[in-house]
Write a structure and sequence with these properties.
The protein is of the alpha+beta class. The chain contains 6 helices and 3 strands, in the order αααββαβαα.
Length: 150
């Protein structure tokens, strides 16, 4: 008799918790989708193409690109099992990007710091929270980060 009561109590608890949401999750998901699609519109064609090329490799889980005046910076992250081969993957991605963009100085990195810096930079540029001087300083900071070896 006790297991039946326990199961009924559990079912009622789950039903009450499920009723509490009342569509909030759907709204949050729709907001996230709209933000993501709006961010995609802000990227240049060159940045989108560079990200697609990097993501075409099966080892690459995600990529982000930023096109400056003198170079194209692409940062990516790999799947869990490929972390030991990041240098080889980086060379393959760079070779493919240089083939696609022969006139550009292509910089490829698997470093998390650079990926985060590109995301912050893009967010600030989209929101117009950054001056031209600050933009140049942050690009220089990315170059310094790229020179570092962890």
């Amino acid at each position: 008799m006790k297991p039946v009561i326990l199961i009924l109590y559990l079912i009622v608890s789950v039903a009450l918790l499920a009723a509490c949401g009342q569509g909030d999750v759907k709204e949050r998901v729709e907001d996230a989708v709209m933000r993501t699609s709006n961010e995609q519109k802000e990227k240049s064609d060159k940045e989108q193409r560079a990200e697609e090329i990097a993501k075409d490799f099966k080892e690459v889980k995600g990529a982000i690109a930023y096109d400056t005046e003198d170079e194209l910076v692409v940062a990516f992250h790999v799947t869990q099992y490929q972390k030991f081969f990041t240098e080889k993957i980086e060379k393959k991605v760079k070779k493919a990007l240089e083939k696609e963009f022969p006139d550009e100085n292509v910089v490829v990195s698997h470093d998390m710091k650079i990926r985060l810096e590109i995301e912050r930079l893009r967010r600030d540029v989209e929101q117009d929270n950054i001056s031209e001087k600050e933009l140049e300083k942050r690009i220089e900071k990315m170059k310094i980060l790229r020179e570092e070896k962890a």
